Amino acid sequence: MNIDTLILIFASTVAAATPLILAALGVLVNERAGVLNLGVEGMMLVGAVTAFGVGVTSGSLFLGYVAAMSAGAAMALLFGLLTLTLQTNQVATGLALALFGVGLSAFVGQPFVGLPIERVPAVPIPLLADIPVLGPALFRYDLLVYLSIALYAAVSWFLYRSAAGLRLRAIGEAPGVAHSLGYPVVRIRYLAVMFGGATSGLAGAYLSTALTPMWVEGMSAGRGWIVLALVVFATWRPLRVLLGAYLFGGVTVLQLHAQGLGVDVPSEFLSMLPYLATIVVLVLICRNPKTILLNQPASLGRSFHPDG
Amino acid sequence: MQPHPRLALHGITKRYPAVLANDHVDLRVGAGEIHALLGENGAGKSTLMKIVYGVTQPDAGRIEWEGRPVTIRSPAEARQLGIGMVFQHFSLFETLTVAENISLALDSREPPAQLASRIREVSESYGLPIDPLRLVHSMSVGERQRVEIVRCLLQSPQLLIMDEPTSVLTPQAVRMLFDTLRRLASQNVSILYISHKLDEVRELCDTATVLRGGRVSGTATPRAESNESLARMMVGGDLRECHLTPREAGETRLELRGLTLASTDPFGTSLHSIDLNVRAGEIVGIAGVSGNGQSELLAAISGERRVGNAASVSICGSASGTLDAAQRRRLGLSFVPEERLGRGAVPEMSLADNALLTAHSAGLVRNGLVRSDAAREFARSTITAFDVKAGSELSPANSLSGGNLQKFIVGREVRLKPKVMVVSQPTWGVDVGAALRIRQALIDLRDSGAAVLVISEELDELYAICDRLAVLFRGKLSSVHPTSQMPVEKLGSWMAGEFAQ
C-alpha cells in the first residue's frame, strides 16, 4: 500500500464522517436543551432531496444547501409544534417524523432519480494545500468539511464558554428551575430543535451532493440513527462526537477497501462493522457513570408544562 | 413608621381547578421587618409566595410595592423590583458550578472571573463562605442553601422570601442562618419567612400573618404569643400531643452488624460498617441531614439492595443480607420509603390495588388469583381506621394529598402487623394533624410489641416518639443512646459529624 492510497483512505474517511458530524452536533445542541428528536433520519433525507432538487433545477449548490437547511428546520419546527406546544410524546413524535421524512423524500424525489449532479468542488487552501502529503490529506476538501470543523469549534465554544450556552444546558438539566428564574424555556427549546433540524438537513445535503452525488431513495442508510447513538455514547460532548464520527467514517472506508481486495469475510458482515465498531468503542469509553450523570441532560425527552 | 410598607397585598385570590389556594389574602411587610407567614401544608403559603415572586399570576387582588401598584409578571420582574427568593426545594442546577448557577440568576453579563471574586467577597462578608468553582451536586444541603442565599444577596434585594429554610438544617446551621437574617434586617432588608415551626418564628420574627385554608386567620406579634395560641390560629383547634409511655424492650428483632454498602448512585453516600439493633417494643430514631446515607440504609434494610454478607442484616434472628425484599417481608418486615408516589405507592393505581401490592399475604390473593372484594375491603377499612381523606378506595393514589396518602401507606403497613417496621421520613410534607396521626400509629405499633426504626430529619418528631436515638453522618452511624441522654445540642453537633467512632 503506497502513500497515495493511504491519503485516499484518509480523505474518504473525512468525507464519510462529515455528514455525521454536521448532524450530530446539531442533535447534541438540541438534546442538551432537553429535547429528544428521533426524526434525524427523516430530516436528513428531506435535506438530501431538497439540496439535490434545488441544486439541479437552479444550478446553484449554495441555494441547494440553504434550501436543505430550511427544509430540515421546517421539519424540526413541525416536531417542535407537536412536542413543545401540543405536548405530545417526544419519542413517538420523533419516530413518526423519521418515517414521514423517508416517505416524503421518496415522493418528492421521484423526478430526480437517475439525474446527474456536479459534485461540490474541493476548495484547496492556498499554500497549505501544496505541502507534500499533508496538503492532499488535510487541505483539499470541499467547504462543508471545513464547515463541519468550524461547527465543532462553534458548538464547543457556545456550550461551555457562552452565557447563552449555559442557559441552554441549564434548561436541559432542570427546565422547571430555569422557568422559575425567568428563562423562556419553550422558546429556547424551539430554537435548539430548529438548529438540530437545520444541521441534519445540511448533513443530508452532503450525502446527495458530495459523498455520492445523486439522489437515491433512502440514501442516508441509517446514518440518522447512528447520529442519535453517537450523541448518546459520546455522553453529549462535542469532542467525543467528533472522534466517534471519524471512527465510524474510518471503519466504513476500510471495510469498503477490504471488500474491494476480496477479503474472505461475508460482505454483509463487513458492512455491519462501522456500526458495530463505533458503538463498541463509545460504550467502552463512556462507562463512567459520573460522566454520564454530569453530561446527560436530566430532562431529556420529558415534556415541560410552564404552569404545571 | 414609614408612610408606605415595602410590600402590601390586598385581596389576593388564586383559584386552581380543585382548590381555592388563596382567598382574599391581605399582607403587609415593612422595611427591615422580619415577617412570618405561618400555616400548615396546603394553607396556601407557597402559592402566595409564587404570586409575589411572579411565578404565577393572581386571579384577583392588588400588589403594592413601596406604595406603588405593581404587576409582577415574571420572576425577572420580581428581581428587578428587588425581590429575592430562596426556595424550599432548591432551585439549583446540580451539574453546574456555584458560579454558573449564580450567573444564571443574575441578569447582568459579568465576566466569570469577576463574578467568582464577587461571590467570595459577599459570601464571606455574611459569614456564608462558599467556593464559587465547586459543582453543586457535591455540596451538602446546608451548603446549597448558602448558595441560594448568596445568589439572592448578590442582587441586593429589598425583600427576601425564605420558604421553609430550616427544614433541612442542623440546629447549629439554623443559628448561623438566623444571625445572617438578623444582620440583613438591620440593613433595612425586609424578610418574609415562611414556616410552620412555631419556636423559630417566635424567636426570629417581628410580626406574623397566619394562613389557614387559603385565608388569613390572624395576624400576631409572635414574641407575645405562645406556641399554643399560634398553633390554634394555624390549625383552628387544639392540638393533641403524642404520648410515649416508657416500657421494657424485648428481644432483638432487627440487627445490623458491620453493614457496609457502596452506593450505586455516583452522587450517593456509601455505608461504612454500621452496627445497630432494634428490639421488640421500642422505637429507635436515626437523625441526620438527608443525603448522609439515609436512602442507602433504607434500601439495605428493606432488601431493595442486597448486601454480600448475609449476616450483616438479620431480621428476627435470621441472616437476611442476601434475601430480596419479598423474602424479607415474609420474615415480618414492613417498610415505608420516603418517596410516597413511585415507591410507596403506584401513582396511577387505585388505593385498593395499591393495598394489594404489599398486603397480598393478608388473604387478598387465593390460588394465585386476586380477590378484588377483599382488596377493596382492606383498603376501605384502612381509609376509615386512619382518617384518610379520599374519594373512595377506587381513587388513584396520586389524587390524594401527601399527608393523606402517607396515612394510607403507613396504615397499610401497620395493619399487616409487622414484627419489624422501618419508616423513612414519615411526616415529610405532611400537615400537623396527619403527622400526629402517623406518629400515634407508630407508637401504637411499638406498644403492641413491634420493633420500629424511624429515619427522620425532623428532630421534634424524633424526640416525641423515640426510645433511643442515633445519628447518621456520611454513611457512618453514631452509637445509640436513650433519648433522655441526648440533649439537642449534642445531637446537633453529632449531625455535623462530631461523634467518636
The level of helicity of chain B is 25-40%
- CATH topology (fold) name of the largest domain in chain B: Rossmann fold
What is the average per-residue confidence, as pLDDT of chain B, rounded to a whole number?
87
Which chain pair shows the most residues in contact? A-B, 20 and 25 residues
Protein name (chain B): Simple sugar transport system ATP-binding protein
Pfam family, one (chain B): ABC_tran
GO molecular function (chain B): ATP binding; ATP hydrolysis activity
Domain ABC transporter (chain B): 7-238, 254-499
Key attributes of the depicted protein:
heterodimer, A: 308 residues, mainly alpha, ABC transporter involved in vitamin B12 uptake, BtuC, B: alpha/beta, 2 domains, seven-stranded mixed sheet
Topology:
The complex is a heterodimer of chains A (308) and B (501).
Chain A: H1 3-32, H2 40-58, H3 61-85, H4 90-109, H5 134-138, H6 143-161, H7 163-173, H8 175-180, H9 185-211, H10 223-233, H11 238-261, H12 267-285, H13 289-295
Chain B: E1 7-15, E2 20-29, E3 34-38, H1 45-52, E4 60-65, E5 68-70, H2 75-81, E6 83-86, H3 98-105, H4 112-125, H5 141-153, E7 159-163, H6 171-186, E8 190-195, H7 198-204, E9 207-212, E10 215-220, H8 227-235, E11 252-261, E12 271-279, E13 283-287, H9 294-302, E14 313-315, E15 318-319, H10 325-330, E16 333-336, H11 351-359, E17 365-366, E18 369-370, H12 372-385, H13 402-414, E19 420-424, H14 432-447, E20 451-455, H15 459-465, E21 468-473, E22 476-477, E23 481-482, H16 488-495
Parallel strand pairs in B: 3-8, 3-9, 6-7, 7-8, 13-20, 13-21, 16-19, 19-20
Antiparallel strand pairs in B: 1-2, 1-4, 4-5, 9-10, 11-12, 11-14, 14-15, 17-18, 21-22, 21-23
